[in-house]
Design brief:
InterPro entries: Cycloisomerase_2, Haem_d1_sf, Lactonase_7-beta_prop, WD40/YVTN_repeat-like_dom_sf. This is Lactonase family protein. Belongs to the cycloisomerase 2 family. Keywords: Carbohydrate metabolism, Glucose metabolism, Signal. The protein is mostly beta strands. It has 3 helices and 30 strands. It has a 4-stranded antiparallel sheet, with no helix packed on it. It has a 4-stranded antiparallel sheet with strand order 5-6-7-8, with no helix packed on it. Strand 19 (about 295-300) and strand 20 (about 305-315) form a beta hairpin. The N and C termini lie far apart (about 55 Å). About 55% of the residues are buried.
Length: about 450
C-alpha cells in the first residue's frame, strides 16, 4: 500500500477509515452495552444572548450568578473538503449533565481553528488558519474579540496578519501583554502585542525555525501505522509559555524539536535559551504539550508515533530531561493512528490524549513520580477526535470530532479518571477547538 505523506492542511481528507478503533474499544464492543437513552432532537438555535430552558439544577447554578459558556472553533473554508463550520459557535453548558445548548454563531471569521481566552476572560483570540490572508501571500491571521459579560456574545475588535501561513495554535502569555502564534506551514512563531482594550497591536517578534530534514516515520511507531506526518520542513504546531512565564516553548512537528525562548517582557522579542531546543525522537512529530500544575514536569505528545514523553522541566533554565515514553494505544493495537490533543486533569492525577484515526481517548494515571500508566482506551463514539477540553469544574470532558461534525462528552470520575459516556452528541460543523468560560447569569 502506498504510504500517505500528510500535511496539516490535508490531514483530515487524506486519512481514510484506518485503525477504526483502539484495542480497548474492540474489547468493549464484544461486551454487553448499556441501552442508549432515547434520541433527543437537536435544540433549535436561540437568539443571541437569550437564555435556554434549563433543568432545576442548571437553574440553581444560574441563580447563583454563574453560567458556563463554551466557544467552539473549526474549519469554514479551504483545508479539509468537509469544512462545515460557520465561524465561532457559542454554547451554554448545563452544569448538571454537560449538555451544550446552541446560542449563537459569529460568522465573520475564517477558519478559527484554535481559540484562547485572555486571563481575565474578557477577550477571545482565534487563529485564522489561512495562507492567503488579505494582500499577504503565505500568511494567516489572528483575530481578537471582546466578550459580552452577560450574554457571552462576541464582538470583533480586529484581525492582524500572523506573518506566516496556516497558523495552527495561539496562546496568551501569562503577562497578558502578548499573543503567541505558531504558523504551521511557515515553521515560524510570531509575537503580537495585546493592547489595553484587548485588540491586537504590532508584531514584536517573528522567529523561523530551521534544521535538518527528518525521517517520515519514527522507529517507535505503533505496529502497522501507515500514516505519516509532514517532515518536509519546519512546522511550528504549538507555542506556549511555561507556568511561570519565564520561557516560551515551541513544538515543531516537522523538525522534531521543542524550542525554548525567553521573552522580553517590555519589547516582546524572543531570544533562544541557553539550551535552544530539545531534540525529540526523529519522525515523532511533537505536536502539543502540557505542564504539571507546579510547572516542573512537561508531557509532550508525538503526533506521528502516538506517544507521550514525560520529562523533567528546569524552571530556571528551560532545560528538558525526558525520562519516560509511553504509547497512547494499547499493546494490542495494530494499524494507523495519529494522536492530536493532550490535557492534564486540574488535580494532576490523570492525563488524556485523543487518537484521531483510532477514534479513541487514552486515559493515563499519573504516578507519584509524575510518570504515566495507561489505564484505558475509550471509544470516542465519533470520527477523528481532535481537541479535547474540560469544563471549568472539570466534571466533563468534551471531544471535538472533526470528521463527524459533532462534539461528544464524558463524565469524569475525579478519583479514578474513568470516563463515562453521557450519550450526548452536539452537532457542529468540523469542530477543532474549545474555549470554556463562565459569566454572570
Amino acid at each position: 500500500m502506498e504510504n500517505w505523506n500528510i500535511s496539516r492542511r490535508v490531514l483530515g481528507s487524506s486519512l481514510v477509515a484506518a485503525g477504526v478503533a483502539g484495542a480497548a474499544w474492540r474489547a468493549s464492543a464484544a461486551a454487553p452495552k448499556p441501552a442508549a437513552p432515547p434520541p433527543t432532537p437537536p435544540a433549535e438555535p436561540l437568539p443571541a444572548g437569550a437564555l435556554p430552558k434549563t433543568t432545576p439544577e442548571a437553574a440553581a447554578a444560574q441563580s447563583s450568578g454563574e453560567r458556563v459558556l463554551c466557544y467552539v472553533g473549526g474549519y469554514t473554508k479551504h483545508g479539509p473538503p468537509e469544512a462545515n463550520a460557520k465561524g465561532v459557535t457559542l454554547f451554554e453548558m448545563n452544569p448538571d449533565n454537560g449538555v451544550l445548548t446552541h446560542l449563537s454563531v459569529f460568522e465573520d471569521t475564517d477558519n478559527p481553528s484554535f481559540l484562547a481566552l485572555s486571563h481575565d476572560r474578557r477577550f477571545l483570540y482565534a487563529c485564522n488558519e489561512l495562507e492567503d490572508y488579505g494582500a499577504n501571500k503565505d500568511s494567516g491571521a489572528a483575530t481578537a474579540f471582546s466578550i459580552d459579560p452577560r450574554t457571552g456574545v462576541l464582538t470583533k475588535l480586529n484581525t492582524v496578519t500572523s506573518a506566516g501561513a496556516n497558523p495552527a495554535h495561539l496562546s496568551v502569555h501569562p503577562s497578558g501583554r502578548f499573543l503567541l502564534v505558531a504558523n504551521y506551514s511557515s515553521g515560524s512563531v510570531a509575537v503580537i502585542r495585546i493592547k489595553d482594550d484587548g485588540s491586537l497591536g504590532e508584531r514584536t517578534a517573528l522567529v523561523k525555525n530551521s534544521g535538518p530534514r527528518m525521517p517520515e516515520r519514527a522507529k517507535d511507531n505503533p505496529p502497522g501505522n501507515y500514516a505519516v506526518s509532514d517532515h518536509s520542513g519546519a512546522h511550528a504546531h504549538m507555542v506556549q509559555a511555561d507556568v511561570a512565564g519565564r520561557f516560551v516553548l515551541v513544538a515543531d512537528a516537522g523538525l522534531d524539536r521543542i524550542y525554548v525562548f525567553t521573552l522580553d517582557p517590555d519589547h516582546g522579542t524572543l531570544t533562544p535559551a541557553k539550551i535552544p531546543f530539545h531534540a525529540m525522537e526523529p519522525g515523532s512529530a511533537p505536536r502539543h504539550f502540557c505542564f504539571s500544575p507546579d510547572g516542573k514536569t512537561i508531557y509532550i505528545l508525538g503526533e506521528q508515533n502516538s506517544r507521550v514523553v514525560v520529562a523533567d522541566y528546569d524552571t530556571d533554565t528551560g532545560a528538558i530531561s525526558p525520562r519516560q515514553s509511553i504509547s497512547t494505544v494499547t499493546s494490542h493495537f495494530r494499524g494507523s493512528t495519529i494522536a492530536a490533543g493532550i490535557m492534564l486533569h486540574p488535580n494532576g492525577k490523570f492525563l488524556y490524549v485523543t487518537n484521531r484515526l483510532g477514534n479513541s481517548i487514552a486515559v493515563f494515571g499519573v504516578k507519584p513520580d509524575r510518570s504515566l500508566a495507561l489505564l484505558d482506551e475509550v471509544w470516542a463514539r465519533a470520527d477523528y477526535g481532535r481537541s479535547l477540553s474540560f469544563d471549568p469544574a472539570a466534571k466533563f470532558l468534551f471531544v471535538a470530532n472533526q470528521r463527524s461534525d459533532s462534539i461528544t462528552s464524558f463524565k469524569v470520575d475525579p478519583t479514578t479518571g474513568a470516563l463515562d459516556f453521557t450519550w450526548t452528541f452536539t452537532p457542529v460543523g468540523t469542530p477543532t477547538a474549545f474555549a470554556f468560560t463562565t459569566t454572570k447569569a
